[in-house]
TrEMBL record:
It comes from Mariniplasma anaerobium. SMART domains: ETF. CDD domains: ETF_alpha. It comes from the Bacteria. This is Electron transfer flavoprotein subunit alpha. GO terms for biological process: fatty acid beta-oxidation using acyl-CoA dehydrogenase. Belongs to the ETF alpha-subunit/FixB family. PANTHER family: ELECTRON TRANSFER FLAVOPROTEIN ALPHA, ELECTRON TRANSFER FLAVOPROTEIN SUBUNIT ALPHA, MITOCHONDRIAL. The keyword Ribosomal protein does not apply. Keywords: FAD, Flavoprotein. Its cofactor is FAD. FAD binds at residues 218, 241-242, 255-259, 272-279, 293.
Amino acid sequence: MKSIAIFIERRNQKICSVGLELLSETKRLLKDSDNQIVALYLTDKKTDEDINRLETCGADKIITYVDPQFQTYDTLIYTKGLENIIKTNDFDVLLLGSTLIGRDLGPRLSARVHTGLTADATLLEFEQTEERLNLLATRPALGGNLFATIICPDHKPQMATIRPGVFSIEVFDNHKAEKVIFEEKILIKSKVEILSKKVNETAYVDLTKAKLIIAGGRGVATMFPTLKEIALLTGGEVAASRAVVDQNIEPKDRQVGQTGVTVRPSVYVASGISGAIQHMSGMDKSEMIIAINTDPNALIFNVADISIIADANKVLPLLKEEIQLIKH
Ligand code: FAD
């Protein structure tokens, strides 16, 4: 039996979705095997609610490590915590979210335990041989012009960070997990003292949770006020291509794609977006894609369920009027 460990990231005392996404996807990929999926739950305060979520999202075993120093993310403390667990468990694979925390923690930890790490993967596969369970982690390479599948055949655990929002969360009813408490003390103290916290006042939007996304690209750069009105009327969120973000029309947290966020909403409306691979790798798993573009050969039409070959500057105001009529 091989084991796949998944770091369960927490922020503001809450489990982040990426850990649950990784549990669910690993469970789906390995459902017909006897391999064990292990959730690594580092917390200052264990809750039954958290444990239940990890269990129903596919964890076969939950290792809970409670320490007051896990209250707020701290690079050295979390690295030490995971290192302690890894050194007493023979994990074959270790997965983390490719978030600010995962990107900080993953490389430091891989150096600490002398293994390899694939950063920012967007696809996971497992290959079972008699001796090993190989992780095949795929990520965009060479500026996103090709995808590279990376393996780490000689070291363990094989590590990867995976982008949030790539996989869906699934609930496996009646799934039960073995629960273990990890007791080793964290013998180091944080070198960071938090003097105060200030909440970022800009209205941060988690696009990965949006069901409807109204996205615009360079072709509709002047139409963002209309896109925002449509989003407001429909309960959607506005997103943008990098071309728009680079022009400071929209903030970086609205950028979809390889260097932005990965989204999979029920509906993604792409106006004036050409469909560069770096954009599409962040939205091509949306359930329905509606594309509006003047160019009939635009690549975005290759992934669109509904293709509107038209001037979006004319279509969008009409769309807004229609929605207003329906709502009144
Ligand atoms: P363009 O490619 O210029 O396309 C504009 C489109 O609008 C065209 O198809 C045109 O036909 C259409 N159009 C023009 N006028 C109208 C109109 N009136 N009505 C309807 N359609 C119209 N890009 C991202 O988006 N996200 C990323 O995360 C990202 N990461 C990158 C990472 C790297 C390493 C690199 C090298 C690039 C990255 N890019 C990313 C950039 C990407 O390659 C493209 O340059 C970018 O996505 C293009 O944005 P766009 O489609 O808005 O603009």
